[in-house]
Amino acid sequence: MYRALKLFLTVTTLSATLVGCSVNPVTGETEFSLMSAQQEVALGSSNYGPSQQSQGGRYYIDPDLQIYVQEVGKKLAAVSDRPGLPYEFVVLNNSTPNAWALPGGKIAVNRGLLLHLGDEAELASVLGHEIVHAAARHGAAQMTRGTFIDLGTTALGAIGGSYGLGETGAQMAQMGASAWMAKYGRGDELEADAYGMDYLAKAGYDPYGAVRVQQAFVKLSEGRQQDFISGMFASHPPSRARVEANRTKAATLPKGATNRMRYHQKIAQLKRDRPAYEAEEAAIKALNAKDSATALAQLDKAIKIQPNESSFWELRGHAWEMKKNSTNAEKAFTTAIRKNPDLFSAYLYRGLVRFDQNNKSGAKADLQKSYQLLPTPPASYYLGEIALDSGDKQTAVRYFQTAAQGNDELAKKAQSRLAVLELSTSPHKYILSQVYVGDDGYLRIVVQNNSPVTVTSVKVQLAEMANAYMVESSTNLDGPKQLKSGQKTTIKTRIGPFNESAEAPRFRAKVVSVQVPE
Questions:
Q1: Most-buried pick from 124, 403, 414, 499 (CB within 10 A)?
Q2: Which residues contact 129 (CB under 8 A, 6 or more apart)?
Q3: Which residues pair with 477 in a beta bridge?
Q4: What CATH topology corresponds to 427-515?
């Protein structure tokens, strides 16, 4: 997605004169934006699925809860300033209390947040707030200002680290596909609060729901709720000023319904399963402490309460891996897949186990499925290894190129693999050369190895140009017998002498072949 996003940004930058100033659909104010409304919708639509994958996937234990949140969201969207947006609302299977909106009306709320809300009006307040972010084009404005942050990737990196996954967990933070959300400024937050309360009132909800939500968030932020600080508060910082602003606004609006009893009926399954997710958190802490026995015991408690939660089984797989029991790890990941076949992660980890067991066909199937759901560096790298093992160098190069983006150990391994593959066909991409005239008037060629591997038997083609585009003559020269990664050396030639160094531009050098030791 990073590559696609870079292309998108390039296109929007070039077309800035075409987009230019636009009217904020909520406030009516004229604003500068690099994104058209159509681009905004396209960006949100293309990233909505990957964003969900990167943050736990959809909550599936209680499908009725999804329907309920969708109903409340659509009720608010219908009275918004942009009712024609393709709004979607989803509950994510994530314990972090958070909610977010992608450009174009793609909105998500974590199940972890629902347990901190007291009634339907408070849920409507959260959803209305996110609807304003979408309707007022706050995401587009933040992208124009260059203040977009990758909260999805950050959250996923934290999840990976929390699971005690070591290198793989850290690599997950480098994923290309994730939730792109804006770190909104104070003005955007107050605007979303105020207009969101208007939507509450229009939809028949108690506007004081927005006051209660901010009161709860302030109280939590003053305590030890670090999950809030890394979640909701990262993009929606609470404050007492917001509480009072909401209270003042609510006093001007008509009273409405709270639907407290209905709300608690709808989240009843979440409340029943709360001890299971608390046991899961204890298991994660145990894994971080390399205590697999305690982790398994906590997960047994969680599974006894809610046996259908795939994340519990996936964590069991990691615990068994920690105990060096790959057979039980594979079984646990298989159960996780059976419980939730629509999430990438269990396929990824089972694929890695199968790869280590030399079950390349099984690993390939799992890693491809994982990659289809969410392309990650680990899946890319090991799919590249499998392709290389089968002799499909072209496919291997494609996967290694994806995995090579980043600075972690896996990216470095992918960069080495990629260099070895490409050095045989395009050595000039890695071994750079430059012509100059030495003090004695003869041509010199500087050759530098920018690849991550040592090369030998370097051959350089020196061409004399008739003009900027036409070669008059060329010759191949022997370069250094060995050139280590990062090493630079100079090749002396017998071409010359020249009276002026300005003669050097008539010549061009290109590394045409190297050998890569096994």
A1: 124
A2: 99, 192, 193, 196, 210, 236
A3: 460
A4: Immunoglobulin-like (2.60.40)
